[in-house]
Design brief:
With about 120 residues, the chain is an all-alpha fold. The protein is about 50% helix and about 0% strand. It is rod-shaped, with a radius of gyration of 25 Å.
Length: about 120
């Protein structure tokens, strides 16, 4: 009788795991390409995800911390945008950034209107 109750509890536990899949085991056991899409939360993205081709991961995280979505930024800088940056940051700072100096949070805040 006691073993029957334990067996029944184990059976209920396995049924719970099978139907509700709280550990997300089914995709691992039954992987198939049925056209399902996987949505990755932006907080849990892996290191291979690149939101913007011109920015490294550190710059992307810095922009996200300020509230800017890196994937919404333009992929290339137009002459009008560069002129706006020169006006907002100063010509010397723009030259430093073009030569590889990292962009600071203050730079982003000053030039935020130029990114639109």
């Amino acid at each position: 009788m006691f073993l029957g109750v334990i067996f029944f509890i184990i059976l209920l536990f396995v049924a719970y795991l099978w139907f509700f899949d709280p550990l997300n085991i089914k995709p691992v056991l039954f992987s198939s390409s049925t056209g399902q899409t996987i949505v990755i939360d932006s907080d849990d993205r892996d290191s291979n995800f690149d939101a913007h081709p011109l920015l490294d991961n550190t710059q992307e995280k810095m922009l996200e911390s300020v509230g800017i979505n890196p994937s919404s930024l333009p992929a290339e800088i137009t002459p009008e945008m560069e002129a706006c940056f020169a006006e907002a940051l100063g010509g010397k700072r723009v030259t430093e950034i073009k030569n590889g100096d990292p962009v600071s949070i203050q730079d982003v805040i000053k030039a935020k209107d130029c990114l639109k």
